[in-house]
Amino acid sequence: MPHEPAYEITTVAVQPDPLAYRPDPTRAVMLPHEIPPGVQLVTLPDGQRTLAYVQPPALPAVPAPAAPRPVPAWAKTTALLAPTLGGGAVGLSYAAPGLIAMSHVLWAGAAFIAAGAIAVPAVLGGVRRRLAGPTQITQNITATGLFGRASGTINHH
Fold first, then answer.
1. Checking DSSP bridges between strand 49-53 and strand 39-43, what pairing results, if any?
2. d(CA 43, CA 33)
3. Contact 143, 149 (CB under 8 A)
4. Within a 13 Å sphere around the CA of 153, how many CA atoms are in the beta-carbon half?
5. Helix orientation angle between 73-81 and 89-132, rounded to the nearest 10 degrees
6. DSSP 3-state assignment of 87?
7. Of residues 26 and 110, which shows the higher confidence score?
8. Model's pTM, two decimal places?
9. In what helix (H) or strand (E) does residue 125 lie, and over which residues does it extend?
10. What angle do CA 53, 38, 36 make, to 5 degrees?
11. Cβ(51)–Cβ(39) under 8 Å?
12. For the chain, how many helices (H) and strands (E)?
């Protein structure tokens, strides 16, 4: 380890500047009730008394961040499926419960659409029949000879 040189500390007495402002110590600059909050009269190590902030000024209130929204199940399933492209069956095994739930939802939606496709025409047909009144059927049958073949038409009115 190299030897470090010793430094001698010297002090020089500084003469006060005769033109510098020096407040009159007998005169109060501020009255005690004029001192703002967070400021106090303190005594410095050299004996001088001055005003100083003893606490940091209060910061304005910051609004709380919004609560995080829950992640939908389909997004979790899709995120779990992403590693299956290169990760083999591990990602698929994690995604299996979500895939099963999604397939149930899709099948339920398809069944709802199919039921609507069957139910809506049936209901509309029933309403139309009630509004139209009773149906009249007219038959015209003709035959030639005793053992001739009969033919006919049916008209709905």
1. antiparallel
2. 19
3. yes
4. 3
5. 140
6. helix
7. 110
8. 0.27
9. helix 89-132
10. 105
11. yes
12. 3, 4
